[in-house]
Amino acid sequence: MIGKIAVEEHFVSEATMAYLPPLGVTDAVQAHIDGGLVDVERHRLPEMDRNGIAMQLVSLTANGVQMEPDVARAVDLAKRANDELAERFLAKHPRRFACMATVALQDPAAAADELERAVKTLGFCGGLANGFSNLGDRNTGEYYDLPKFLPFWERVADLGTPFYLHPRAPLDSQQVIYEGHKELLGPAWAFGVETATHVLRLITSGLFDRFPNLQMVIGHLGEGLVPMMARAQRRFEYASFGKTLKKPLSQYLKDHFHISTSGNFHTPTLINVIAEMGADRVLFAVDYPYERSDEAAQWFDSCDIAEEDRRKIGRDNAVKLFSLAAS
Ligand code: GRE
Ligand code: ZN
After folding, report:
1. Label partner for 246 (CA 20 to 30 A): which of 97, 239, 273, 303?
2. Whose CA is nearest to atom 6 of ligand 1?
3. Ligand 1: which residue has its CA nearest to atom 10?
């Protein structure tokens, strides 16, 4: 399929290179990833061209500003990363890239202002956070269901731009279950558990009852949530510990989330996600440069789904959701 739009594609800003998580890959693979994160014209655009990807939605890679425990420094890092993204991608190639703002939720008011600046002044199409934010020190983290984040979510809802919740690894103090298993700590497993749990925290906090037009995106074919939502709902109905929601728990995933294919190119899972969410809520993504665009594209272009759904997932849903100027 030509004209695809890939919605979870990454870059690294100059000042956030030190915030990349250890990947445990060979030096050659690491060099390929580092080069891919920095590059625009040499590798990225030709790789898009070769694989029918008309546009990337670009965001700052994990752990990004979320890992900076100093509030003022995090706020400054976010501004500079967004300016760099605007200059290096959007200004030079406005038809090939759309941008997701990074926000320093260490300061919710500043994060709201920066998102608004990015959307209104820089022309970005949404925001993205790499999981919880460290606050004060490397072993203190805050999840965005806490009441202090409500003004931020209010601004997101007012702006009407989607917000992408991207993974990061759990806090050091929460890693006991992965002891002796570094291989499970990153994208292989812990990223998904971390993000899925964060999503459930947002849902059961009542965030989406408060902001009925708030729209979120998650990657990796749903971070494991989709096949577990019915059970989560069932057990929440038996034991909600005093929490009340206006709708059945699983309905919030269907009404407030879009799910991308980033780094999970597996047809039975995609079919299940389409069945549960509807084809209108699924989006194509690669997860560049952690994943290869050719693998993603060859899989997506030929996987056994309806052609009408391929058009929606490959392009049309993203145009609609992110209000992209379709070219
Ligand atoms: C990803 O986006 O999938 C990713 C990161 C950082 C490290 C590994 C990884 O953002 O797969
Ligand atoms: Zn990613």
Report:
1. 273
2. 62
3. 62
